[in-house]
Amino acid sequence: MESINLQLIPHNMEDCIYLDHAASTPCLPEVVDAMMPFFTQYPGNPGSVVHGAGKFAARAVKDSRETIASVLAAAPHEIFFTSGATEAINMAIKGIALSAGKGHLITCATEHSAVLQSCRSLESRGFRLTVMPVDENGSITPNLLEASIAKDTLLVAIMHANNETGVIHNLQPIGEICNRYGIPFVCDATQTIGKTPFLPSDFGIDCCCFAAHKFYGPKGIGALYFNTSGRVTRLLPQIEGGAQESGLRSGTLHVAGIVGMATALSTIENQAGSFRLFLENCAYFENRLTAMQGIILNGSSVLRVPGITSASFRFLEGGPLLASLNTKLCVTGGSSCSSGSGKPSHVLTAMGHGPQQAMSGIRFSPGLHTSRADIERALSHIEQCVAQLREESQTWKMFQKGSIKPVPSWFHPLDV
Ligand code: PLP
Asked: 174 near 203, Cβ under 8 Å?
């Protein structure tokens, strides 16, 4: 078998400014230190509690579960470990729906593909699906949600912060509607947990999904918060086997990952100083970016999570823009999953953008360790790329000469 030669991939992190923290973050040193012994020194399987090594691993899992639960103001038995947010989402949505056997599901057009595809897969198996529209800011209208509820609605799956735009859904009215009608509320909080305080019980959430690699923990580990004394009486397990995680998710637990996730969450919680700097840097970046000509900040008039800035560039094509930006940066067009698909972003399309604007949406995602100097370098590179590409754009020249009206916002279908 051929070995992988990473040298073949042009990827010098010293020369490149990483602005893709919404896709994944580096592990904090504390996280790596906490995990390392579980790779090299402690081989125990937490299921093998008949000997010391197994008991030690089980203890590490128990402590980590307690730490995560306490950050979320949940009980430890309400935290179920998974391989990431995608699995937790599938576990919740399919688990609820398939326990019922048939019925109606409600979700929203701007959800992550893990939610949309889980729902569509159920739709292909006979479940009815309502996909809620959003307005130009990416927000849903609670009255529309209420009007969509049917007698057999099994769940409402609405995310907290959107992964492409950072737009935060106001979950209060959604939780209240779910509560009023007794419908389980599933929430994908992958872009929120670890970035801003979030307690699922504040919104009456029954199932909440998240992943460690979004908050400076390792990849390959996530969790489902499942309010076991709430409206969901049963989740049909999607992975069967040795009945780990109370039978809900079989398979040997990723002990190092679990320890890493708990360490990341508790460390991040206590980093108020670097978080303040991060917020200042994000605001500075956004202010400077939006001061550039012909740039539209998506979801600009609603609450957004820090660290996600989605901007569309008028009169520029997404592909060449992304390629040009990524000679010195690491950014994506929309989500990391759809980046490179050549399709317009489903999120920006749902917000009413025309194809050009939905294709030229770029997600800039600074992180805790992005310095002001990185931001300055990134901004000057963005300015250069945009100026160069616009130099070649006929529509931009017409716009500048006044032959194209300066339509104010997102609404204009083809941006000309
Ligand atoms: N949900 C949201 C909002 C996300 O941003 C992501 C990852 O990008 C996921 C779900 C899926 O997470 P994972 O890749 O860890 O399964």
From this structure: yes
> With a 6 A CB cut-off, is 86 part of the ligand 1 pocket?
yes
Point out the residues that are catalytic. 337
**170 ligand 1 Cβ < 6 A:** no
Question: Which has the closest alpha carbon to 285: 372, 384, 163?
Answer: 372
Instruction: Say yes or no: CB of residue 336 within 6 Å of ligand 1.
Output: yes
Q: How many Å apart are CA 95 and CA 100, to the nearest integer?
A: 9
Task: Locate the ligand 1 atom nearest the alpha carbon of residue 159 and give its number.
Answer: 3
**Which of 218, 238, 269 marks a domain boundary?**
269
Q: In terms of Cα–Cα distance, which of 409, 304, 404, 413 is closest to 356?
A: 413
Strand partners, 239: 249
Q: Which atom of ligand 1 is nearest to the CA of 24?
A: 8
322-359 burial code (b ≥16 CB/10 A, e <16):
bebbbebbbbbbbbbebbeeeebbbbbbbbbbbebbbb
Query: Is residue 120 domain-resident?
Result: yes
Give the 3-state secondary structure of residue 402.
coil
Residues 357 and 235 in one domain: no
Residues 6+ apart with CB under 8 A from 177: 142, 145, 146, 149, 156, 183
Q: Is 118 in the pocket of ligand 1 (CB under 6 A)?
A: no
Domain count, the chain: 2
Indicate the DSSP class of residue 378.
H
Specify whether 220 is located in the same domain as 334.
Answer: no
Question: Ligand 1 in contact with 166 (CB < 6 A)?
Answer: no
User: pTM surpassing 0.90?
Assistant: yes
Q: pLDDT band at 367, cuts 50/70/90? A: very high
Question: Residue 14 domain-assigned?
Answer: no
Residue type, 58: A
**Which range of residues forms the domain containing residue 319?**
272-415
Ligand 1 binding pocket mutation candidate from 163, 219, 261, 365 (most atoms within 8 A of CB)? 163
- Whether residue 22 is contained in a domain is answered as no
Tokens at 413, concatenated: 């279908």
Alpha-helical (H) ranges within 270-326 are: 272-290, 318-325
What band does 402 get if pLDDT is binned at 50, 70 and 90?
Answer: confident
Compute, in angstroms, the gap from residue 352 CA to the centroid of ligand 1.
Answer: 23
Q: What is the pLDDT of residues 101-117, one digit of tens each?
A: 999 999 999 999 999 99
Q: Residue 119: left if φ>0, alpha if ψ -120 to 50, beta else—which one?
A: alpha
